[in-house]
Design goal:
single chain, alpha+beta, 5-stranded antiparallel beta sheet
């Protein structure tokens, strides 16, 4: 298993990346709303439908942590960058 974190400036881009990553079959996704406010982390799992439009709408973007099988990490990183994410 591999993991990485990506920052998004826009909730729309973040949501598109989440949808695409779900279709690719990632192991887990965690979101921390409001990348501009790192002092108030609020991680939530996205695979169980935990992501709501309300939680993302509270901030302009967010951080996305992706856990993926080692053989698929490059595909997941490419997907994140395609939707405007910056891998940290």
């Amino acid at each position: 298993m591999e993991n990485f974190t990506a920052a998004f400036r826009s909730e729309h881009d973040l949501q598109q990346a989440v949808d695409a990553l779900r279709k690719q079959g990632v192991v887990d996704l965690q979101i921390e709303p409001g990348a501009a406010e790192p002092h108030q982390p609020m991680p939530m799992s996205l695979l169980g439908g935990g992501l709501s439009h309300l939680s993302i709408a509270e901030s302009p973007g967010g951080l996305l942590q992706v856990v993926v099988e080692s053989s698929r990490i490059r595909q997941a990183e490419d997907t994140v960058t395609r939707f405007g994410g910056s891998i940290e």
